[in-house]
Amino acid sequence: MSVGTYSERPGAKPGENDGFSVPWSRPRPKRVVISVRLVSAITILMLLAAWTVSASLQLVSPVFLPSPAAVWAKFVVVARDGFVDATLLQHLVASLGRVFAALIAAIVVGVPVGLAIGVSRIGRGVFDPLLEFLRPIPPLAYLPLIVIWFGIGEPSKILVIAIAMLAPVALSTAAGVRGVSRERIDAARSMGATRSQLIRHVVLPSALPSILTGLRIALGAGWSTLVAAELVAATRGLGFMIQSAAQFLVTDVVVMGILVIAMVAFALEFVIRRIERALVPWAGRE
Amino acid sequence: MPHLVLDKVSVHYDGQPAPAVERVSLDIGKDDFVVLVGRSGCGKTSLLNVAAGLVEPAWGKATIDGRPITAPGPDRAVVFQNDALFPWLTARENVAFALRLHGVSADARARRADELLSLVKLGDAGDKRIWELSGGMRQRVGLARALAAEPEFLLLDEPLGALDALTRERMQTTLLDLWGASRVGVLMVTHGIEEALVLATRVVVLAPGPGHVVRTFETHFGRRYAAGEPIRAIKADPVFAAARADLTDAIFEGEAA
Q: pLDDT over 70 for what percent of chain B?
């Protein structure tokens, strides 16, 4: 087959002036790419250094700001011997237990509620205003009411956390359900799926990435409600530990508790991201 | 023999001042490959959705074997431009989806799914995840999935529209092979003039404002391929070029050149 006027340029040597690259143009200097992680690490180190310096120069009284060394020493002591009748691990387990119990409650209630909002006008009419009402109320505001209604036992504490988790779970589920593509639904309907099969086999799996995002947000919200939930009649828990320490001005335990709460939140975020990647590997790849 | 019939069908969407389609009649037999072509807005997809039972006609009747079409059903499988596959399932599980809905045992449906996958030349891709497949492969999984329910009619809404030109060309013969092997009636919507000619036994040209039929061409190129003639020879035939010119004229008829 002959191809008209096209001919390959024979024997062009590499480096030969091809009329496009100008011989006097210098290669552009490589741009230095700054790693975000590196900047973050430096920021944290700077803060730690500032903290250490101000503590060692006694710029602030140790009652207000204990030194990093003192906080670390306290961490070791509390981890080994405990504080207010429980070791750090026992406090941590108590708090995690409450948060996970609340998470399960929030899933059991929130996913069906979100599904109802997403698939039915009536469900949306009923639940949307309730969630919008519940969402902006700070936990400390409804805590007294819950104590009056349900007493000072463990259920009240879990309920306080679960309420904070409910809205993110339900709203993310609803958003995921509403985002299911029309074509996917129509394809399943044309294969003879009934309404309940459609929800089980198409809608819920399609919404799963969004539901998991909701769980991640909920876990953050629940964890930050911890201190409020442990305000009343707790004998264990990280929030309870911080409050007791604050009452006796044991500032190093307060600071240590805050750091532990932050660290656990960070670890939870990491774990749930891993779970997301394992459960919905298709998210973002469709 | 089953017939999918649209009888003087008009489609009028809520809130629209004018109907999208007015008095269009189609009759698709079990051996037909009917292709709808026409400029944007001529109501091709609306008609396909009426046949699928996804859109209700404002006037006129849509029937299959004399029964009115009121909802989607397993006798009419739909394949969309975007494959609409389920990414949480493997290719095999996607193909077996309809069988699972109807309670077929896991063994039987895996066997049937593998048969269908090899029919679309994806015999070894059963365990692959959907996002690991190329666009053409995904569309082939979509076709296999549509055939799993053993429909009488296949409704294809620009099934090759999202594919690159080369894959598209190869998929045309895959479609013809499938049509030949499974003996289903096909109603397909496309923008491709050549594609319409290659595949169809009948090309229906629609024009917009509101959508109506301008011309109908009986063609035979698909049957020639089915009889063993290579696709390139068919496309190189002067008869093909002439048909192509006629069809192009019909589509742009009444529009300032």
A: 98
**Cα-Cα-Cα-Cα dihedral of A200, A203, A208, A209, to 10°?**
160
Find the CB nearest B77 among A191, A197, A280. A191
Distance between CA atoms of residues B140 and B159, nearest Å: 10
Q: How many Å is the maximal CA-CA distance in chain B?
A: 59
CB contact under 8 A, A191 and B145: yes
Is B84 within 8 Å of A282 when comparing Cβ atoms? no
Which residue shows structure tokens 């009917």?
B34
Comparing CA positions, the residue from A113, A110, A135, A137 lying closest to residue A125 is: A113
Which of B 78-117 lie inside 8 A of A, CB atoms?
A: 78-80, 82, 84, 86-88, 97-98, 100-102
DSSP states along A96-146: HHHHHHHHHHHHHHHHHHHHHHHH-HHHHHHHHHHHHHHTTS-HHHHHHHH
Which pair of tokens denotes residue B188? 């397909």
Distances (CA, A) of A8 to A5, A20, A279, B179: 10, 17, 52, 44
Give the highest mean pLDDT range of A52-66, A198-212, B121-135: A198-212
Residue B218 DSSP SS3: strand
Q: Hey, what domains does chain A have and what are their CATH numbers?
A: 68-279 (1.10.3720.10)
Question: Strand B185-189 and strand B153-157: pairing?
Answer: parallel
User: Distance (Å) from the C-alpha of residue A280 to the closest C-alpha of chain B?
Assistant: 7
Distance (Å) from the alpha carbon of A116 to chain B's nearest alpha carbon? 22
The pLDDT value recorded for residue A2 is 46
Whether residue B101 and residue A193 make contact (CB cut-off 8 A), yes or no, is yes
Residue B46 and residue B12: Cα distance in Å, rounded?
9
pLDDT at A256 > cutoff 70: yes
Q: Is the ipTM of this complex over 0.90?
A: no
> Which residues in chain B have their CB less than 8 angstroms from residue A191's CB?
74, 77, 97-98, 101, 145-146, 148-149
pTM as predicted: 0.80
- Work out how many CB contacts closer than 8 A connect A with B: 75
Residue B62, strand partner residues: B6
Tell me: the pLDDT tens digits for B32-75? Answer: 999 999 888 888 889 999 999 888 899 888 999 889 998 888 88
Contact A190 B76 (CB under 8 A): yes
